[in-house]
């Protein structure tokens, strides 16, 4: 690690919190990543052989996904076969000394291994167990397989994405998984506070992918309940709020949010449409919504022949919220991201340097940090087992039987 203030030793908000991560791919591991960034010790249990499938997702460098370098930083890797009795015994001993267990298996998987919450809480009454699944631990759909994309569909998000009358589109990332992970982290932090401030008892946090998506759907259900209104896809516009849309420039698109009353006046003045700025029927949002198509045409007639840089400069001077639709290159070259440590230079265990996202949120007193790079499979197996009191001969026996790698 080098070159960024975020990597300096700082007080850690979650120092002393031990997390056992059993999840794979995105939702569970993203929760573990977030806790690790704020000082928790995260031990990631991976199956011997291929390990977490995320190691092989998307673009690879030196045989490992570069996504892995972000998702698994600040973690220790224990290659342990949870399908074997000896592997389960080791996991139980680890969990007995842990604060948090994260898992995102299909409901019933841990129970089948004799590691349901009741059994684990008998060993560790203070255990907090984060369970992320497609549909939650209860209900008629609990046993159905679920991915983040299905959660986005069932949670109501996919119906709103895309252009009216066309196939729904995804936003390009696994937003359902990430929303579930963030809700899980909120649950873990809340449960840790309750445990330590009250009776020392842990609890289960049950996060369903579709519910995490549904939780951010704003007025979707109240509008249906009150008016029978079913919100539909609206492309890049913000339905019921105007003007707020993406507008074509000579070299791409910019987002312009001119929906505040005073902002609207400044926007119309900046684009040379004082007639619209001074129109009393457009003085409030309701009037603007009624003429949204007219307003969008007027704005794009001004943006279309101009470069995005010229549009941004003019509207920034007019104090109108606007922004370019950034690509990865735009983000990497933007000085604001660098100034706020949102792009960090990280040295991987394969020896190469790579830019990775920084840490959110920014805590003034106990900021997050990247203390270690992402591990290779089983990097920490022997060290963790020795810390548990196993002798080298016992470790060798477990490895010979395939329980560890």
Automatic annotation (TrEMBL):
Gene3D superfamilies: Crotonobetainyl-coa:carnitine coa-transferase, domain 1 (3.40.50.10540), formyl-coa transferase, domain 3 (3.30.1540.10)
SUPFAM superfamilies hit by this protein: CoA-transferase family III (CaiB/BaiF)
Molecular function terms, GO-annotated: transferase activity
Superkingdom as given in the UniProt entry: Bacteria
Keywords: Transferase
Annotated transmembrane regions: none
Name under which the protein is recorded: CaiB/BaiF CoA transferase family protein
Naturally occurring in which organism (per UniProt): Paraburkholderia denitrificans
Lineage, opening ranks: Bacteria, Pseudomonadati, Pseudomonadota, Betaproteobacteria, Burkholderiales
């Amino acid at each position: 690690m080098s070159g960024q203030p975020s990597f300096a030793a700082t007080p850690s908000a979650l120092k002393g919190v031990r997390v056992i991560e059993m999840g794979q791919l995105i939702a569970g591991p993203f929760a573990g990543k977030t806790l690790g960034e704020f000082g928790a010790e995260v031990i990631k249990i991976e199956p011997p052989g291929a390990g977490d499938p995320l190691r092989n997702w998307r673009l690879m460098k030196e045989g490992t996904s570069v996504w892995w370098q972000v998702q698994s930083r600040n973690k220790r890797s224990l290659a342990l076969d949870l399908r074997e009795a000896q592997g389960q015994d080791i996991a139980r001993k680890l969990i007995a000394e842990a604060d948090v267990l994260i898992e995102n298996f299909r409901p019933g998987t841990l129970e089948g291994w004799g590691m349901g919450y009741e059994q684990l809480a008998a060993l560790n009454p203070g255990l907090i167990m984060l369970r992320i699944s497609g549909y939650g631990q209860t209900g008629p759909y609990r046993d159905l397989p679920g991915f983040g994309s299905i959660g986005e569909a069932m949670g109501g998000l996919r119906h709103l994405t895309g252009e009216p009358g066309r196939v729904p589109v995804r936003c390009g990332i696994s937003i359902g998984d990430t929303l579930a992970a963030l809700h899980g982290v909120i649950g873990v932090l809340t449960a840790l506070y309750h445990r330590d401030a009250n009776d020392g008892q842990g609890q289960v946090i049950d996060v369903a992918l579709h519910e995490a998506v549904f939780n951010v759907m704003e007025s979707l259900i109240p509008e249906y309940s009150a008016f029978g209104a079913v919100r539909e896809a609206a492309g890049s516009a913000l339905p019921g709020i105007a003007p707020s849309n993406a507008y074509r420039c000579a070299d791409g698109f910019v987002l312009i949010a001119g929906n505040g009353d005073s902002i609207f006046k400044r926007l119309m003045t900046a684009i040379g449409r004082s007639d619209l700025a001074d129109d009393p029927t457009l003085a409030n949002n309701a009037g603007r919504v009624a003429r949204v198509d007219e307003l969008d045409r007027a704005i794009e007639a001004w943006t279309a022949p101009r470069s995005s840089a010229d549009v941004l400069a003019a509207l920034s001077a007019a104090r109108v919220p606007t922004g370019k639709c950034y690509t990865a290159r735009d983000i990497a070259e933007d000085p604001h991201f660098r100034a706020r440590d949102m792009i960090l230079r990280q040295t991987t265990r394969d020896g190469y340097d790579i830019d990775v996202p920084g840490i959110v949120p920014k805590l003034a007193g106990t900021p997050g940090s990247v203390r270690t790079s992402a591990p290779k499979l089983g990097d920490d197996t022997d060290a963790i087992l020795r810390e548990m009191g196993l002798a080298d001969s016992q470790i060798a026996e477990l490895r010979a039987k395939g329980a560890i790698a």
